Amino acid sequence: MAPYHISEDIVDNAIDYLFEHQMNFPDQPFFLYLPFGAMHTPHHAPKEYIDAYRGKFDAGWDVIRQQWFENQKRIGIIPKDAELTDKNEYVRDWDDCTEKEKAVYAREMEAFAGMLTHTDAQIGRLIDYLEESDQLDNTIIVFLSDNGASAEGGVDGRFNAMRGQDVTVRSEGEIDYAYEHLDEIGTELAFNHYPTGWANCGNTPFQWYKIWAHEGGIKDPLIIRYPAAIKDPGAVRNQYHHVSDITPTILDLIGVDKPEYVKGVHQQPFTGISMKYTFDNPDAPSEKHIQYYEVHGNRGIYKDGWKAVVNHCFVEDYAKDEWELYHVEEDYSEKYNVTDQYPEKLQELKEDFMHEAGKYGVFPMLRFSMHAKPENLSRQYAEKIPIAEKNLVFKHVRHAVNLVMNRSIGGGTSGKANHMVTAFIHRDSTEQEGVLYSVGQRFGGYSFYIKDNHLKYSYNANSIKHFDVVSDEELPIGDVKVAFSFILDETGERANVTLYVDDKPAGETVIEQLAYMVGFSTSLLANPYSPVTPDYESPFEFTGRTDEIILHQYPTEIDPLEELAKLSNIE
């Protein structure tokens, strides 16, 4: 199989779409939205891109962060008087790291850099096509990141980033394992993410990271190219603006008003403003005066050169939040918290946040333990699943179907949900086998399948442990009803899995270690991409006939064991 990378694939498709559009509708404009998976974990790239950076990060994040800061000033993308913020908590001193740790940390950053360069090459291919097809200078190109660098790799980085997202603790055995598999970092055999030290470096000169409302989480690069309106290409603009301003800017540039109705549906008003005024007037005062931010309880508000922000990530109670205040017009990097000097200004901004958040539907804020301190990580939401949503039924399923769900059955980020999967199948011989239902891949998930004429279930706890159960007896030929149930115990940290054949228990096991994260892919009748279990090779498509599959997630307001008895006709 030829090497595959989604960044290459989506650019190939984008070029195909543009070619077909130009051939068929040469006089009509086009809109192309190209969202790369990069630079989200896992950081994967062809080996030659990663190897090109070998040794480039051996100096460590302390030295390189200072170098990047000085380079930012040299090329003019930050003010000359900007100051570098102190290193964040949970970032180790590079000089205190062992040689083994340095080797792992450096390789994880090499993988990130290789992926970044590989992505840049794909963007270059698209730009080259626009130029070759004589469309480049008549195309408005908007290029931006969606958030600051992420600290999800934690203190030591993670060979398998699906094992956790806590930024505060060291991962036992992580360095030894990653060092032994150093050459697999950046390949399909790893779900790698770099340590917090490189995230802090990537957010130079700011503090904190993605999901924080500090500048390290929300201040992103934005590049706009449009020669018809921008006469000083490569110049920098310093006015304050927000991602909500992009659409108004595009419509302003092409001279089109936002329609009040689209296909009879009334359109919401813009929350942003056009940035066009900055294109030919680099010194114009900012026309964007106020903007709120909120993610997982971390929140902030900008107003006319001031910014109030709160780090809620490590706080149990909203009432205990401690707000910070920065005069960002003078303190570009948010280095100096001036709360004590300007208490009235802080109170004003806090009230402004309440107004803006209420206006735009922020409340109630989601409290989520991602990145929290260890003592807070056990807090999970017992999500209320409405009765009406508890069943998904697929009839006459013949081929593998990829499902995109906001709430996969027993999936999501934690996989901690009571559920049952039932399949009505027909087999003409004992050789017909394959996956009936799968969630995830080699880095975490579970699979319900038939192999060697037995019903099987395998639970992959993020590659740390596998828990398997096999039916006591071989499956009958012809029509048969097969199922499994997944029921958490009273602690919520272990689960009992039971197999059923024609409503009779056929095997069980206890899952003693739940995955931190499962999913991203939920499939019927196959396990594409990579196998959840080493018991088979992907995609392991089911070769029998499937008439119906029922995916059932138990509502939290009822007893799952009582519901299980109803579903399974069990006394």
Q: State the shape.
A: globular
Amount of beta strand: 15-25%
Strand element count: 20
Q: What's the SSE pattern?
A: HHHHEHHHEHEEEEEEHEEEEEEEEEEEEH
Q: What's the main sheet like?
A: 6 strands, antiparallel
Q: Which blocks of ≥5 consecutive residues have pLDDT under 50?
A: 374-389, 399-414
- For the CA atoms, what is the radius of gyration? 27 Å
Tally the helices.
Answer: 10
Helix content: 10-25%
What is the straight-line distance between the termini?
51 Å
Structural class assignment:
alpha+beta
Mean pLDDT equals 90
What's the arrangement of strands in the largest beta sheet? 9-20-11-16-17-18
Detailed description of the structure:
The structure is a single chain. With 571 residues, the chain is of the alpha+beta class. The chain contains ten helices and 20 strands. The strands form five sheets. A six-stranded antiparallel sheet has the order 9-20-11-16-17-18, covered by helices on one side. It has a six-stranded antiparallel sheet with strand order 10-19-12-13-14-15, with no helix packed on it. The longest helix is centred in the first third of the chain and has 34 residues. The chain is globular and about 80 Å long. About 6% of the residues have low confidence.
